[in-house]
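ok so for the tutorial part 2 we go from a plain amino acid sequence to predicted structure tokens. step 1 is just haveing the sequence, like this:
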Amino acid sequence: MTFSVSRRFRPVRAPLSAALAAVFSFNAFAQDKPLEPVVVTANRVPQLATEVLNDNLVISSEEIARSGGTSLVDVLQRQRGLEIVRNGGPGTQSSVLIRGADNRQTVVLVDGVRIGSATSGGASWNAIPLSQIDRVEVVYGPLSTMYGADAVGGVIQIFTRQGEGPPALSASAGFGSWDTRNVEAGISGGAGGWRYALRAAHEESDSFSALKPRASSYNPDRDGYDSKSASGRLSYELSAGHELGATFLHNRLESRFDSGRTYDDRSDSKVAAYGMFLKNRILPNWHSTVQFGRSYDTSDSDAVFGRTSYDTVQDTLSWQNNFTLFGTDVLQVIAERREEEVESSEAAVSRDRSNNAIALAYQLRRGAHLAAASVRNDDNSQFGSHTTGSLSYGYKFNRAWRASASMGTSFRAPTFNELYFPGYGVPTNQPEKGRNTEAGVHYDDGKYRLNATYFRNRLSDLLVSTRTCPVTPASFPFGCAYNVNRAVLEGVSLGAGAALGNFRLSGTLDFLDPRDETTGNRLARRARKHGTLGIDYGAGPLTTGAEVIFSGDRYDDAANRNQLGGYGLLNLHATYALTKEWSLFGRWNNVFDKDYELARNYNTAGSSFFVGVRYGAR
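step 2 — the prediction. this is what the tokens look like for a chain of 618 residues:
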């Protein structure tokens, strides 16, 4: 899927066929004017989607607005190649799996600033507020040559809003099941070289019990949450080709969970990303970007097992140089330093490490031929030097058809818990390594759209919990984290869409064989089949649609003893434009009240609704 960088959501007030005459966008019914679709994350530079060789999708602002949802995880659950795991309702601990890769094997960025926990690994998805997000890009496959450690399954980048033009106000308010309430407002614009955007939101819900009654730690209380968030961007064009700016996203999440039958277990989390950038066109063919980013991932828990705290701070300084050669080729030189610091209630885990990296990438275009090659070296103060590379080739048969193939290597750095947690971590643990090959075909004639991608990602030195520990058993009475396993993530990812009059049809289907080669078992919480079906209708002021999400069975444990059944969910949504600026929206999830599990003994949302009113652009 693709997006156009300056699109803004507007309720459809004319027959969809009129909008289709102007331009087709897979994720939106209409847009202000035809624009070339662009993808940023794949190569750290804006590119026409037709020239991006990596498999990717974009969740547009329009799609988020139509969803009527309040959770980023719920929006990701509806996307191709993505599965989610959640320990209860919104606000509870969540994971996102790309093509079967673990949550720790995905890099997550907010406006180019890396976020995540260095103790547990991966992003704290439950604490990333959907209300602050303009769009999301998902790039599949290894991208360690662009982003270093942990980009094994892919990269997800979250973009906050940008401002331009006259000042524009926007706001929305809504309520739903379990006394869920949401209020958000923002202003954006630009003039005289300045561009600005600022947004704030508050969301809270009583929710439902995270655990089911059969769980040993079940507590019948409701495990609700309270989220307060803000985001902003400010930039100034110093002169033509020279821009200075800053971005931020901040969210504080107070949530409840179950770990004891009578104790009111709760956590206080913070996810924040702050960035400053300077963009310079030094020569007509030389563009330089310097960015400094700082992110926080903190969690303080008060539970029946005691009080704990885990705080991660990441600082990243990068200098990226893009040189345009031969009119269409791009040579990239990237230098980057990242520092991670952890403070924890477990004194042994309180550590820091640094990483210096240099990367070279070349993107070539010769008529119908597209190619890209990249190499990167990461020198880490903890586990030494690690080099990754990638090579891609694509061929455009005509305007609609393109085929591509690629291969690349990646690695995941051990978390601080896997290295130092008392009775579990092993300081000599080394990075996991991945080697991926894939091939795909893509078709888009403006009316019909389809893509098919085959991939095979072989992983070695997997860090797993095992009783085969490298030192005396007395040090690890319950086992340890150790590099002992190998795995294969192999599958086919299919996607299709069509625009037929006032209707839009879409569908995805993923076949996955996620297996642990050491044990022969299927990797935990991965389904062999996962997909979606969707239909949207837009005419006059009304836009409405339905979607089906379905998944096969999964196992909750690595030993494949506890099976989670497959499920199918039906969701409905609608938007009605009252005026040019005002609209009503609503969503009914899990219409048939399906009882299913994403993690053993944890509840999921039954039939639920959310309705609201919106003013201006989302």
